[in-house]
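dude i think i finally got it to work??
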Amino acid sequence: MVVPGLILALTGCAQQIAAPPAPAQDPWPTWDEALGAVVTPSGRVDYDALRARRAALDGVLGALAVDPGPSSDDALLARRINAYNAFVLAGVLERAPIDSVHDVAIGIWRVPAGTGFFKGLEFRLDGDRVDLHTLEHTLIRARFRDPRVHAALNCASAGCPPLKAGIYHPETLDAELDAAFTRFVKTRCRLDGDTLALSEVFDWFEDDFLAWGGAQTVCHYAARYEPDWTGIAEAGCPHRFEPWDWSLNAAVVPPPLATAPAPWGDSDGGCPPGMVRLPAGTWTTGMKQPFPYGVVDTTQMAVVEAPERFCDGAIGEAEGATACWVRTDLYDPVVPLHEVTVPDACIEPLPFPGAGPYPPDGMSTWDAAQFDAMLSSGRFGPRRMCTFTEYELAVAGPTQDLRFLYGDAADPGRCPASEDEGIGARPACANPETGVGEYGAVISQWVVADPQFVANACPDPPGCAAAGGRALVDEAGQPAIRYLVAGGTRRVQTRQAPYTPHTWHDHGEAPGPQGCDDWGWDDGPAVCADPDPRYLRCPDEPEGEGCAALALAEARWAALVEGCVGGTMTDCLNRGLSDVRGEQVEVCPDRPETLGPGQGR
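look at this
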């Protein structure tokens, strides 16, 4: 991508990239699969992997060189977008090693920077010679006049829109261009206070967005793909353009979390070291009667100011009450008594990461989905997010079913007064049966909704619903939501019943795969695992089947936890997901750093 107006009116020698012979079979499915393998989730390119799949690239180069004959506009545009992206990748391989496309200088194509790559390399397209500049600006932009192509063309630089991990298809091109532009806006633009920080694409091609896109301003066009920016657009479009990053868009591979197996630790019934076992069985769980709370209902207050001052009176008026529940308009149900049947499971004895201070930022629904995906990868052994039922049994005790973590009467002095005291600061703040500590008594936990929970989530189903009035159960009787927050907390003005595991609330659905939410933050994840017999066998048979792989997974988990102690959940997710994906991941680059646990609620 050469900035318009900067091309010198010169002629000179160009380097022609030879086109292989046209393949006998359709090369596009193979190239589509190859792109899926070499393009990372963030839209960068593993160029070493691309070299290993050079035959797939040569196949499409050969097919592009031959004129396919008449075609529809969508077919022609898809072909030219695919050609541009394939030519760019071929150009990088041809001129490797380079740190930037600006490093390419060919003949007289040296000034300004970039002309060597975009004007000095020529490819065969439909029987003719073409350079990347002409393909982009004449054969694509001027021919089709669709501003969305700016998000589909990738110029092999970090500032470019992310490269699609696949080809563009004529039959679904409109939707694919919308998806590409949405991803471009979410990853290359951001809201900085009351100003939009936009990619320089919006500066270089402003006329495209206004004339061809029919937008009043570039902010209005961007807001079509990020509706939260509509207010900024209507407020005069305060914006600036972010400097373009011309460094090569090569995949950034992070150092591995661990490369050596961990020494085997003690296992509780086949659980990962350090975790405690929840026994299989049929148990009764849920809030016992009488309801142990004096309720301060704020829904009728004209001004909700220090509602906790009404707690003493509310406790005195409620029979058997030992604690106060400040209830707001967002009612958080307490799960009634019900019977559950569960298999063996394991749980971390303390909230994640199990030592040091509580993470200062907590998690959102999006984060919970990312954490779930991270654990589900298997990179960290059989660990996974706990279900609500597992969490409730572990915190209340399978046989005791305590109202609170430590007993049936509220005794706040047993637990930390705030997150400032750090995880594990009060050993007495623990369930006497399972040994798990502090869950729901200091902070609440993200868990996965399970069928037994949603069938019994409300005292009088369907008397309550998830966020936004969503149903808890779908037509098949399965959970219609996945991630929710379980357990009350010690915070005075909590909307949850404090200290108990028998409460829950929902923050809504996670956004789509290309975005992250900035509302609805809460605390941390509850980490469980399925028992694995290798934890019992491998300490005595470290060379046995699967033992080395499991020991390495344990080493990764130990390294991840060590790196997460004292840090934010955002940084922790970045570390874990980077290891899983094999590239440097930044979960939500525009996330505020000052938001504390539960402050989004």
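The chain is about 30% helix and 10% strand.
im so relieved honestly
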